Amino acid sequence: MNQSPYILAIESSCDDTGAAIFHGSQLLSNLTANQKVHEQYGGVVPELASRKHEEHIIPVVDQALAQAGIDVTQLDAIAFTVGPGLLGSLLVGCSFAKTLAMSLDIPLITVNHMEAHIMAHFIEDPKPQFPFLCLTVSGGHTQLIIVHDFHEMEILGETRDDAAGEAFDKIGKYLGLSYPAGPIIDKLAKEGKPKYKFPKPNLKGYEFSYSGLKTAVLYFLRDQKKLNPDFIQDNLSDVCCSVQSVIVQSLMDKVIKASNEYGINRITIAGGVSANSGLRKALENHTDEKEWDTYIPKIDYCTDNAAMIGIAAYYKYLKEDFATLDITPQPRLKLAT
Ligand SMILES: Nc1ncnc2c1ncn2[C@@H]1O[C@H](COP(=O)(O)OP(=O)(O)OP(=O)(O)O)[C@@H](O)[C@H]1O
Ligand SMILES: [Mg+2]
Asked: Which of 130, 51, 103 is nearest to 293 (CA)?
């Protein structure tokens, strides 16, 4: 078994087309083509996403190879996101990866997108030791997980309804912000105060819920606008700060509870919402207080990217965990436990 294979990794689960090249565990290139087309609709339009993936995938892969300084014939394996995600989007990456692997006669590796968000911690140093807790907060998921090993992950709890990222995006829509609103709310929150008290989602155990918060903000804005039609523009940063604060607190409560209950003080965060400065700061503050050993990924590795797919694929390559060419996308794939 070649211990330092050249692996091309492809990510196309939602609206970002990513390609990365690894040489062993070393990342050589990592490119993402974003899709601006969805902004005008306030959310991802699946049919448009898959068409854009078709346009982007060949140029993105070509650039990833060029930046890595290798020729396509030097590749030892092709990895791609098999799920979860949008069927049409996954299909583009899957078909491309299968075709290339078949034409080069090299192994094909499937990667679970949510496992890859966690594996983003192994792209660069310092890397967490097992076991560790991971709070995965993204556009489609909110999960608290004990990571026992590379492919042994135990979900303690997840959201019953909306993900934290979706709450950011939908509340942003109510505020007239463009999609994705998470980073915009984050920026505006820095200039505001947590003046408004929204109900903190508080489910038993390790479950999360954000649909109630969305409704509470919707009704709050409706009532305030009756009193002052300019309420949103007059108070935008305070509303953003209040929303972000309650989301961050609800996430932190569960992480603290799990750390205490399971006696694990290695804490990691993953997924797009882990780019949130309020969450990062709250984690840093608790780290000082509780002597946690905390790992926060680089912003580039938080939102969807192919580097996280590549590092997950590298560990599967070492185990010769290869897929066959009859594999099809799995839009509702669960985390391997
Ligand atoms: N700084 C930030 N603060 C808050 N949310 C953010 C920030 N940056 C990105 N996000 C949110 O992260 C989400 C996108 O993350 P990611 O790309 O991991 O999700 P996804 O791939 O759409 O979903 P999943 O990984 O569950 O399939 C969006 O909801 C976006 O608003
Ligand atoms: Mg994602």
From this structure: 130
Amino acid at 99: T
Q: Are 301 and 123 in contact (CB under 8 A)?
A: yes
- Report the C-alpha gap between 186 and 243 in whole angstroms: 10
Ligand 1 pocket list (CB less than 6 A): 13-14, 85, 113, 117, 138-141, 165, 168-169, 180-183, 186, 271-273, 275-276, 303-304
> Would you state the structure tokens that stand for residue 5, as one six-digit string?
């294979």
* Distance between Cα 169 and ligand 2 center (Å): 14
Distance CA 109, CA 101 (A): 10
Domains along the chain with CATH numbers: 6-119+302-318 (3.30.420.40), 129-297 (3.30.420.40)
Residue 63: how many other CB atoms lie within 10 Å: 14
* First-to-last C-alpha distance (Å) of the chain: 26
Got the DSSP string for 268-288? EEESGGGG-HHHHHHHHHHHH
* pLDDT by residue, tens only, the chain of 337 residues: 788 999 999 999 999 999 999 999 999 999 999 888 888 887 888 999 999 999 999 999 999 999 999 999 999 999 999 999 999 999 999 999 999 999 999 999 999 999 999 999 999 999 999 999 999 999 999 999 999 999 899 999 999 999 999 999 999 999 999 989 999 999 999 999 999 999 998 898 999 999 999 999 999 999 999 999 999 999 999 999 999 999 999 999 999 999 999 999 999 999 999 999 999 999 999 988 888 999 999 999 999 999 999 999 999 999 999 999 999 999 999 987 6
